[in-house]
Each structure stands twice: as C-alpha cells, then as structure tokens.
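Posted in: Structural Biology > Protein-Ligand Complexes

Title: Requesting predicted complex, magnesium ion in pocket

I'd be grateful if someone could produce the 3D structure tokens for the following input. Sequence and ligand are given below.
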Amino acid sequence: MIKAVLFDLDNTLIDFINIKIKCIKDAINAMRNKGLNLSEEDAFSEIILIYTNINFEYSEVFQDFLKKVLGRIDYKLLSVAIVAYRKTRANYVKPFNNVKKTLEELRKKGLKLGIITDAPKIKAWIRIASMELEDYFDFVIAFEDTNEKKPSMLPFKKALNELKISPEQVLFVGDNPERDIKGAKQAGMKTALAKYGQFLDGEETADYELTDIKDLIKII
Ligand SMILES: [Mg+2]
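-- Reply #1 --
Done. Output follows.
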C-alpha cells in the first residue's frame, strides 16, 4: 500500500522548460529592440548552447552570450534582457493543470508528500512558492541536502529517512526516465513517469505512466 508520494519538481510539478523558453525569447526580443543585431533563432541557439554547456540554472547566461556575440558586455542590452526575463518568469511560473487539486486529494487520503529535486535549494523553494505550493509538502530535498544528483541513491535514501517507511510504500513521480525513474527504482520505490512533462527520452520504464497528474488519484 502506498503511504507517501514523492515528486520531482521541474517538468513534473512545474512546466519548467516551456516557461524557460518563453523567458529566453522575451529577453532576446528586448535586446533586439535595443539594437542587438542578431536573429531570434541565432540568439536562441547561442543561449541554449551556454545553458547546455554549464547548466540550466546558470544565472550569468546573458553576460556570456553578449561576450560571445559582441566581444564585450553591453550593459544596456544585459539589463533589458534580465528585466524581460524576470518579468516573464514572474507572470508565467505556474504548475501543470490539476497539480493543486491532485495534491489536495492526496493529502486528504492521509498520504505524506515530498519533493526530490536536483535544483539548488533557494531556486527550488522560490519556484514552489511562486506556484503557491509551499504548504503541501512534508519536506523538500534539494541539491545541497546530499550534494548528489539523481539517479544517485543519496537523495532517495534521505527521503526514506524522513519518511521512516519502507521504499515499496513510496511512489516516486518524475519526468526523466534516466534520473527520476532509474534512481527511484534502484531505491526500491514504485515509480510513475510524468508523460505530460517529459521532454527527454530514456530506456528506463516506470510502473505507471501519467498523461495528467490527476491519474495519480486512480493509481493510489
Ligand atoms: Mg524534472
């Protein structure tokens, strides 16, 4: 019997990639409006390349981008990019459909709820608070809690320590087969793949596949 449900954060609870794409495009257009002489497509590929080489949380992406394409940081362009990016992020950070309703249902059933994310703690919490989900979870395990990323066993073990129940009583929900599903399976948990948020393929198969987060109610 399932007694706890643990979630990945980005692309599982929050529509992270689509919001990020919109933020980047709005930042590019703000720079183009102030004279950046580069097509939206070319600028977008350069920025994605920087994120891919470092990581998607990298916060000096526009500095690096301007250095690369102009040979220096133009602070007017940098500032309009950052302002546009933040404005869009503030308006668009929201959970997938039915996230709140589903979390409420699960809590009503008396289940423990938690998050295991590879994101840095403060960034994870700000995303959670932006979605007004901060009261739904018993705990949030972020990168600094173990200094290891999924599929490492450490974040999953840390969660089991918090819950004090056996792994087969835990259902883990995530969008990334090779990180979320693989890691949770290795830890002995039941798994559900968040198909609705998945953007990376993988070999690992889950016990359940969700086309909507509310499918969880039927499973449990
Ligand atoms: Mg994810």
